[in-house]
Amino acid sequence: MNDRLQLNSELRQQQTLTPMQVQFVRLLEMNAAAIEDEVQRRLDENPALEVAEPAENSRADDSFNETAEDLQRADYRDEDDMPPLPASARSHSTGDAASVSSILESSAADEETLADMLTRQLREADVPDDATRAYAEFIIGNLDSNGRLTRTLIDIADDISVETGTEVSRADVVPAFELVRSFDPAGVCAIDLRDCLLLQLRRMDDDNADVALARLVVDRYFDLLASRRYDKLAQRVKASADDLDRALAIIRGLDPYPGSSVSSSADRAQHITPDLVVEPDYDDPTGRRFLVSLSQRVPELTVAQWVTTGEGDRRSTPALDQADAFMRSRGREARDFIELLKRRNDTLLAVMRTIVDMQSEFFRTEDPATIRPMILREVAERIGRDISVVSRATSGKYVSMPGGVYPLKMFFNEAPTDQANVSAHSIQDAIRRLIEGEDKRAPLSDDALTAQLADQGLDIARRTVAKYREQMGFPNSRGRIERRAPKP
Predict the structure, then answer these.
(1) What is the number of other CB atoms lying within 10 angstroms of the CB of residue 5?
(2) pTM > 0.70: yes or no
(3) How many whole angstroms separate alpha carbon 85 and alpha carbon 83?
(4) How far apart are CA 189 and CA 186, in angstroms?
(5) Phi and psi at residue 406, to the nearest 5°
(6) Which residues of 163-201 are buried (b: 16+ CB within 10 A; e: fewer)?
(7) What is the DSSP string of 278-299?
(8) Cα dihedral sign for 311, 314, 317, 319?
(9) How far apart are CA 376 and CA 412, in angstroms?
(10) Tens of pLDDT along 164-197?
(11) Residue 45, CB half-sphere, CA atoms under 13 Å: how many?
């Protein structure tokens, strides 16, 4: 075999991001809460980065400490003419009263989570031994917010063995598993939906024939129940249509997510923080102009004075050279971060103003049906940036308006066809109205939905109708059929 050297040339185009661009992309992807944390982290780590001192005229505002009652008293000639403030307002206006945030935090802290509720029941339960109690605590820690068990008993037993250093089998964990399943709310610690429904049915009256039939349906014929094949289900359970309807009404009244009914302070504390605010310009008589601003609580940043004043010429020594190098590197990092933060904010504002301009009808009415077709490329072309920049600027971001808080991704949607002048939101709204108004005993098929949309002037393909129906969470016509209207 002849070995020979070979030289091949290949032409490739490759884009490489500079470190500054990488940092900019990372900052652009952050939402308001994340950027606030990032700014605080940079302030803690970089001594050259500081919060800018407020202007002299703004310091006078710090001494303003008039209460709400003082302000109201100034509007009246004497205290006899002044109506009394509500008790809540009087308590909040006092200087030593708790702030609104502290009141909310204390009320949230008093709420009992699902884990707290189950742990409290475990303490009050008659547990045969300490090992069962410890295993039950471990099982409670493996429940999700809906009360569903997230891992198998074998995996839980293995975890306990690793943590305690003793051999624990699945059989050892079963008594603790059954104990937690007996706690309230009924259906907690289930392994799947069928198990959850059965746990709730088993706590109902055993002498009730309708409950017994509902239990039989869920236990042995859950697949027919899930597919809503009620005719075949009635044949299998050998029940009349009326008896089956009463059993189905009981099943509909069960809670598939029992843990979610328990108020959780952790869940309540998690809320959407809008990144931008859009509000009408009340000075505009036409009502078509809007003010766009950032809602993040980020202070104005500046480079520390010791960085700028220490950059002059001075006698060179190894120690001073090392100090100068540190000072210059930290100062450069601070300047770069301030510049990148400004670029990020300017980009967000430019994207939001463009969205407001292109979706002006929605911002006037806040009606989702008025959202016009719009894609990322259109916004990118208007602001002169790349599509990836617009995508990162809108991903996970929210805008606050007088009527509510909306995700920025909501404004981007393609027209279903090149000839259509309506957005996907309008079509989904039309499909939703048709499904909600249909006869539940004979639901509309996708072909029927397509035909009725065409009658409304929406010429949409059947596969597009099916795609939008699935996106909205509606099952097909067989999955929506009901023998009778659900009983209250």
Answers:
(1) 4
(2) no
(3) 7
(4) 9
(5) -125, 145
(6) eeeeebeeebbeebbebbbebebbbbbbeebebbbbbbb
(7) EEE-TT-TTS--EEEEE-----
(8) negative
(9) 7
(10) 888 888 888 899 899 989 888 888 888 888 888 9
(11) 10
